[in-house]
Design a protein that fits this description.
By secondary structure, this protein is of the alpha+beta class. The chain has 3 helices and 10 strands; from the N terminus they run ααββββββββββα. It has helices spanning 3-24, 43-46, 183-191, and strands at residues 49-58, 64-77, 80-89, 94-103, 108-112, 116-125, 128-136, 145-154, 160-168, 171-182. A 10-stranded antiparallel barrel has the order 1-2-3-4-5-6-7-8-9-10. Strand 8 and strand 9 form a beta hairpin.
């Protein structure tokens, strides 16, 4: 095959990959797709008090690379909230993060945390919340800055399903799937 033929094949493969990742797959969804979905996800109500979380992290080839459980505690003062997260990984490692969340009148969200580069942005619409941010990994995890697209979907029973993709240079390097729920849901289910 000639050099021109190889370049043409590479260009076609790159175009197909771009279309799949931006128009067909996970990244193709937009908050507007969920505008009429119920129940309505208001972060000031749903990310409040003690929350319990379980999740898995998939590596770039789709295998589970880590599992975790976590406890979050969130409080709000008007449209500004602080959420403290404590993760316990299957490796025995513990991770702490403190988010500051600001809900704007147009339902957009600004999010900051010590390991987030700059200000994360997103919005709440219908039954979903979407955030985009760049997270700086610890030196032990390579120290890379990864672009994150974070979607949270509110179920009718109050459980939040979370799916996040982590990308470097536009290439997916990890994916997180987790559940979050108010601690009260667990207590109610135990009593029944």
């Amino acid at each position: 095959m000639s050099t021109l033929g190889v370049l043409l094949v590479i260009a076609v493969m790159a175009a197909v990959l771009w279309v799949f990742s931006n128009k067909i797959g996970f990244q193709s969804q937009r908050p507007e797709d969920y505008v009429d979905s119920k129940p309505v996800f208001d972060i000031r109500e749903r990310l409040r008090g003690k929350l319990l979380c379980e999740g898995v992290i998939f590596g770039p080839f789709g295998k589970v690379s880590s599992r975790f459980v976590a406890e979050f505690y969130a409080k709000w003062d008007g449209d500004t909230g602080v959420m403290n997260e404590v993760f316990q990984y299957d490796s025995g490692a513990t991770q702490h993060r403190q988010w500051t969340l600001k809900l704007k009148p147009d339902q957009s969200i600004e999010a900051t945390a010590p390991d987030v580069v700059g200000i994360g942005t997103g919005c709440q619409m219908g039954s979903v919340v979407q955030l985009n941010y760049t997270i700086k990994l610890t030196e032990a995890a390579g120290g890379h800055a990864l672009n994150v697209t974070d979607w949270m979907y509110l179920a009718s029973n109050g459980v939040i399903m979370n799916r996040s993709q982590f990308r470097k240079f536009g290439i997916k390097v990890a994916e997180l799937v987790a559940t979050m729920r108010p601690a009260e849901i667990e207590l109610q289910q135990a009593a029944e």
